Structure formats: structure tokens, C-alpha cells
Amino acid sequence: MRKEKLDEMISMLKSEELKRKKNPVLRILTVLVIIAAVIAVIYAIYRFFAPDYSDDFEDDFSDEDFEEYFEESDQA
User: Fold this and answer.
1) SS3 55
2) Is the residue at 58 inside a domain?
3) Between the CA of residue 44 and those of 27, 31, 35, 39, 50, what are the distances in Å?
4) Looking at the domain assignment, is residue 17 inside a domain?
5) How far is CA 47 from CA 5, 42, 51, in A?
6) CA 32, chain centre distance (Å)
């Protein structure tokens, strides 16, 4: 009786190993998904910590600069 149960358990384990070996595509996809997730996290961290240069660019040009430019061109 015990030997039958032991043989049954061994055969179940072997079948599980075969199932794992039959899915290399699944493993490749899993690795690709993990790599894509890591890249997404790194990009999100970069975007969070990267300085926003558009604010500095907008600050360089004030309304007074434009008014002075147009006043000079009107006088000429």
C-alpha cells in the first residue's frame, strides 16, 4: 500500500517537472515582462527626479521684454 502511494507521488513529481520543461516560451515571456517592468520603474523614477527645464525657459522671457522689443521696432 505504501509503495503504491510512494510511486504515485513520484510519478506526480515527474509529471510536474515535465510540465515545467515544456514551457520555455512562458519562461521567456516572464523574463521579458520583468525586464519591461524594471525599465518602466527606472523611467518613472527618472521623470520624477529630472529637472523641468520648461519653467526656466518661460522665466527667461517676461512681458516687459516683449514690450520693449515692440516699442523699439515701432520707433524705427
Assistant:
1) helix
2) yes
3) 26, 20, 14, 9, 10
4) no
5) 58, 9, 8
6) 11
* Domain extent for 36: 23-75
The residue type of 7 is D
Q: What is the pLDDT of residues 28-76, one digit of tens each?
A: 999 999 999 999 999 999 998 887 776 666 555 556 666 666 665 556 5
Q: What is the dihedral of CA 70, 74, 75, 76, to 10 degrees?
A: 100
| Number of compact structural domains in the chain | 1
Angle at 38 between CA 40 and CA 31, to 5 degrees: 120
Residue 55 falls inside a structural domain = yes
Helices and strands: H and E segment counts in the chain: 4, 0
Specify the pTM: 0.46
| Terminal Cα distance for the chain, rounded | 110
16 within some domain:
no
